[in-house]
């Protein structure tokens, strides 16, 4: 990547590295203990208009969910028996999706029991789960809290009903406020709220109102994402037909700056490209696990694992996952083993998302100064106005935040690397393209 490639905002979201993967034997994916667990629940009541992810949608999926949970439990049993995992406690658990809160109470209890009976959780384990306002209930919150759950992530996206309708959400702003009220009432203080900006029909003032409305609900944490338009989604189709307009890049930047100003005024720290946390609340440990070279096991379809330099992905197809996990307990379908240079590249492309990136961490991990390995890249980023340097600390500028995916790709080993969501049944990479 050269200077010219840093001029236009890259929308192909960099989620992991190395980008190129090949088929991998599940046994080769494991080499030492893990510290985190991610469980993926691939079901939703319906598909949002911006969603391209592999989920199954429908009004009544509970029979299939029972079959899915059979397979998930079998995979968890297999994972816990591996020598590298057995007896090692977890200090992070994250249940994501999909919409995990779509599970019926008995199914949610079954999932939680399967995790807590299989693994030892540390006393201060951050135990998170994603929730939709449409399927959150007091009963499910009580079940989660009784199992040790202590952090919620609620997908609100906007507090403007017209915008919510435009993007295909199945809740209203009033229902989102009620969900947050119930969460506080159930005793949860560590609540994350998801917001999206750059939405169709959204103005800068709409964003300001949504952020203020969000903070009025007293979340500990807010994840604030720009909209990416992915191919073959409802929004993409409407955009191709000229039926839809989304804010331009200048307005997008104005939206972000307006929101960041409000977050700062209300005592929130901007510690990650997309994340703001109340200064009196610890940062999200799961976020730090992902972007600061933590290790975790992923269970469920398309779940990612990163252990001892091994990056692996479970079967992408839900049906394929269910069959693999049911029959063998192992669902790993693809992955790669990182050599030392690749690990260093991964540390940079993900570490720079954190605010700030401490170059001393790089030295402690690898025994060499970061400038010795990536001096030219860091010089290019500084000269392009994408990072600043304060002693050992590197920080993204406002423009660097907008171009975080460009920056990630600057550290790719080869320009032709393409990120893949996994391998299809034919063994071909499944590519995610952002427009």
From TrEMBL:
- Describe the location of the Radical SAM core domain by residue ranges: 29-269
Q: What UniProt keywords are attached to this protein's entry?
A: 4Fe-4S, Chaperone, Cytoplasm, Heme, Iron, Iron-sulfur, Metal-binding, S-adenosyl-L-methionine
Q: Does the keyword Nucleotidyltransferase apply?
A: no
Question: What Pfam family is a match, any one?
Answer: Radical_SAM
Q: Which PROSITE patterns match?
A: RADICAL_SAM
Superkingdom of source? Bacteria
The family note in this entry says: Belongs to the anaerobic coproporphyrinogen-III oxidase family. HemW subfamily.
Record function comment:
Probably acts as a heme chaperone, transferring heme to an unknown acceptor. Binds one molecule of heme per monomer, possibly covalently. Binds 1 [4Fe-4S] cluster. The cluster is coordinated with 3 cysteines and an exchangeable S-adenosyl-L-methionine.
Q: Mind telling me which NCBIfam families this protein's record contains?
A: hemN_rel (TIGR00539)
Record's protein name = Heme chaperone HemW
Q: What is the organism field in this record?
A: Streptomyces venetus
| Phylogenetic classification of the source organism | Bacteria, Bacillati, Actinomycetota, Actinomycetes, Kitasatosporales
């Amino acid at each position: 990547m050269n200077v010219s490639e840093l001029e236009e905002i890259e929308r192909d979201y960099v989620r992991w590295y190395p980008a190129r993967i090949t088929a991998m034997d599940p046994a080769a994916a494991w080499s030492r203990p893990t510290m985190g667990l991610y469980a993926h629940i691939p079901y939703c009541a319906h598909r949002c208009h911006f969603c391209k992810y592999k989920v199954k949608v429908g009004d009544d999926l509970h029979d299939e969910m029972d079959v899915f949970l059979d397979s998930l439990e079998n995979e968890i049993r297999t994972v816990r028996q591996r020598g590298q995992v057995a007896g090692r406690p977890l200090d992070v658990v994250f249940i994501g999706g999909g919409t995990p809160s779509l599970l019926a109470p008995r199914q949610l209890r079954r999932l939680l029991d399967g995790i807590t009976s299989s693994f030892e959780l540390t006393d201060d384990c951050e135990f998170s789960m994603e929730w939709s306002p449409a399927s959150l209930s007091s009963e499910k919150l009580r079940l989660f809290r009784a199992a040790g759950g202590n952090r919620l992530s609620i997908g609100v996206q906007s507090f403007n009903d017209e915008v919510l309708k435009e993007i295909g959400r199945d809740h209203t702003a009033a229902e989102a406020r009620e969900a947050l009220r119930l969460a506080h009432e159930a005793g949860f203080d560590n609540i994350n709220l998801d917001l999206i900006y750059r939405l169709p029909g959204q103005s800068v003032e709409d964003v300001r109102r949504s952020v203020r409305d969000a903070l009025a609900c007293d979340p500990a944490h807010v994840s604030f994402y720009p909209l990416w338009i992915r191919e073959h989604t409802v929004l993409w189709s409407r955009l191709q037909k000229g039926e839809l307009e989304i804010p331009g890049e200048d307005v997008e930047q104005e939206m972000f700056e307006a929101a960041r100003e409000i977050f700062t005024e209300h005592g929130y720290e901007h510690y990650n490209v997309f994340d703001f946390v109340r200064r009196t609340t610890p940062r999200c440990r799961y976020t730090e696990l992902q972007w600061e070279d933590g290790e975790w096991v992923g269970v469920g379809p398309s779940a990612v694992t990163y252990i001892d330099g091994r990056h692996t992905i479970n079967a992408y197809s839900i049906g394929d996952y269910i069959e693999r996990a049911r029959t063998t307990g192992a669902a790993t379908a693809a992955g790669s083993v990182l050599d030392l240079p690749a690990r260093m590249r991964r540390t940079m492309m993900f570490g720079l998302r954190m605010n700030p990136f401490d170059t001393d961490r790089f030295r402690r991990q690898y025994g060499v100064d970061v400038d010795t390995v990536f001096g030219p890249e860091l010089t290019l980023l500084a000269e392009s106005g994408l990072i600043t340097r304060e002693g050992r600390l590197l920080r993204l500028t406002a423009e660097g935040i907008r171009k975080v995916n460009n920056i990630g790709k600057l550290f790719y080993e080869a320009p032709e690397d393409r990120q893949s969501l996994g391998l299809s049944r034919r063994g071909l990479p499944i590519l995610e393209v952002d427009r």
